[in-house]
Specification:
The chain is an all-alpha fold. It contains six helices and no strands. It has helices spanning 11-15, 28-59, 61-70, 74-102, 104-108, 110-136. Helix 2 (28-59) runs antiparallel to helix 3 (61-70) and helix 4 runs antiparallel to helix 6. The longest helix has 32 residues, at 28-59.
């Protein structure tokens, strides 16, 4: 019996810095895709809950008032900051996706556009979060 023939790995298998078998490569395009999906799903579930709790007003105004009363606490204020962050990122990244889909110049500059999305998101959150949290925690008027 002869020994099995040695299989030589291909050039891409020996020179790639990314481990074989991984789905995500860690670049801006991957992170924008992952964050867009996560924020989209989160917004969907928020809207579902919002529609259900608003529908309570027709069924039982007392139950509606009780549910809305539970939302008026500082923990929910943090949730509102997360919600606004998700909506802002999803909206800005959605505009980036439209640019990339329709204009070739945007495809060439999609990495810069994603960092622009992150910059716009940070400006939005730095403008919103402190004021909202001050109001929620009683520090503003």
């Amino acid at each position: 019996m002869s020994a099995p023939a040695r299989v030589t790995p291909s050039l891409s298998e020996t020179t790639s810095s990314t481990p074989r078998g991984t789905l995500y490569r860690g670049h801006e395009g991957m992170w924008s895709w992952v964050l867009h999906r996560i924020t989209g799903v989160a917004i969907f579930f928020f809207l579902l809950v919002h529609i259900l709790d608003t529908a309570l007003v027709r069924v039982s105004p007392e139950a509606y008032n009780a549910v809305i009363g539970t939302y008026k606490n500082p923990i929910m204020a943090l949730g509102e900051v997360v919600l606004v962050g998700a909506v802002a990122y999803h909206a800005y990244n959605g505009l980036r996706i439209v640019l990339v889909d329709f204009w070739s110049w945007a495809t060439r500059h999609q990495r810069r556009l994603w960092w622009g999305v992150i910059g716009l998101w940070l400006v939005t959150m730095l403008g919103f979060a402190p004021r909202h949290l001050m109001l929620a925690f009683g520090g503003g008027s």
